[in-house]
Design the sequence.
């Protein structure tokens, strides 16, 4: 099966805001969503510096778009000011009030997420689309399994449609509104809490339109359950060439959403499926980065792999160099089991060993492990 080539939509690329391309032959973009409500206090003084630093760290980790809920006009003002402080394209997630969308479009906000069906009548939709077109800001139509129109929900309940078909019909109705106004800088997401329904819905719509698709499983759950459900859906779709941007929704941190997205996307991008005897080319490539291997730890451990990994995980995912890092639990098996690693660390007793491709290069006191590890990282 050939990779699906969707139409190209650009987000950002004005003023200080970086351009991110969605669709076409461009790499699949990873995104996440800010977990808390923003206030003016969040973006002022030291708190504002911390927010900006976290956004920059997310970007360095591989996040291309960052979405914020915008429930009212004050939130729009706050997000607008934040958009002036960072280069990452920010996305405003809006429901019900078209005036919030219009206010967001007064700022360098790179993308708007709305549902035309819930922001008012045709005249209000036209105002938003007209302003967005004039500003060069794309819009994502977001359809969720839990918020289908009442009529479609009833048809699902009585068995006239399955949920995947209902998601597609809801998306096509919204797209028809955009087509009426000639607005083409549009993306679509159709998300359910079921991996199977998410897969089926996106397969169906991918056959009917060239609109770029934002894919993900909504309300997927806590870290382990959420990653598992998202991996099942996203790997399947990405391996079929479906999906232009992804979000791994988790009841967990934004950083872990980005890491999970990178791992799923990397797995899909390097795999090749055999269909009808023909090899499918890997999915659109992703930038080089770190691969982390670490042992699960057992009674032989002489090194706190869990604690060390937790301290270094986010930073390691900011590395732009292609390398493998091993964090192993015991000196007996560590270097041998991770001979392929560009850099590894393990320990025994009060000592820590640093090794490269299985060869020990430093033996240090455990208290110096983090400093020595950083020194070796800097030489890779």
Sequence:
């Amino acid at each position: 099966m050939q990779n699906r080539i969707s139409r190209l939509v650009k987000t950002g690329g004005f003023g200080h805001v970086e351009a991110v391309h969605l669709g076409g032959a461009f790499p699949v973009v990873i995104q996440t969503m800010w977990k808390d409500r923003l206030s003016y206090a969040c973006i002022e003084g030291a708190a504002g510096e911390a927010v900006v630093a976290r956004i920059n760290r997310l970007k360095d980790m591989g996040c291309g778009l960052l979405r914020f809920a915008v429930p009212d006009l004050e939130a729009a003002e706050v997000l607008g000011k934040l958009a002036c402080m960072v280069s990452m394209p920010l996305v405003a997630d809006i429901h019900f009030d078209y005036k919030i969308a219009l206010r967001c479009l007064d700022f360098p906000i790179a993308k708007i997420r709305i549902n035309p069906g819930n922001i008012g009548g045709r005249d209000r939709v036209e105002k938003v689309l007209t302003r967005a077109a004039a500003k060069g800001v794309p819009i994502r139509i977001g359809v969720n399994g839990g918020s289908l129109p009442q009529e479609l929900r009833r048809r699902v309940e009585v068995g006239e449609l399955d949920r995947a078909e209902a998601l597609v019909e809801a998306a096509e109705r919204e797209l028809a509104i955009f087509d009426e106004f000639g607005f083409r800088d549009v993306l679509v997401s159709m998300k359910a809490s079921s991996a199977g329904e998410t897969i089926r819905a996106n397969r169906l719509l991918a056959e009917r339109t060239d609109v770029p698709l934002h894919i993900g499983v909504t309300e997927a759950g806590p870290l382990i359950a959420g990653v598992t459900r998202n991996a099942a859906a996203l790997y399947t779709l990405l391996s079929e060439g479906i999906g232009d941007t992804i979000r791994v929704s988790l009841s967990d941190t934004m950083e872990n959403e980005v890491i999970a997205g990178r791992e799923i996307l990397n797995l899909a991008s390097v795999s090749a499926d055999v269909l009808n005897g023909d090899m499918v080319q890997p999915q659109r490539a992703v930038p080089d980065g770190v691969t982390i291997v670490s042992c699960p730890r057992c009674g032989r451990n002489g090194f706190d792999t869990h604690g060390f990994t937790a301290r270094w995980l986010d930073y390691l995912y900011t590395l732009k160099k292609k390398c493998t890092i091993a964090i192993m639990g015991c000196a007996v098996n560590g270097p041998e089991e991770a001979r392929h690693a560009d850099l590894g660390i393990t320990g025994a007793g009060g000592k820590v060993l640093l090794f490269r491709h299985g060869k020990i290069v430093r033996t240090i006191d455990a208290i110096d492990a983090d400093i020595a590890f950083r020194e070796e990282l800097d030489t890779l």
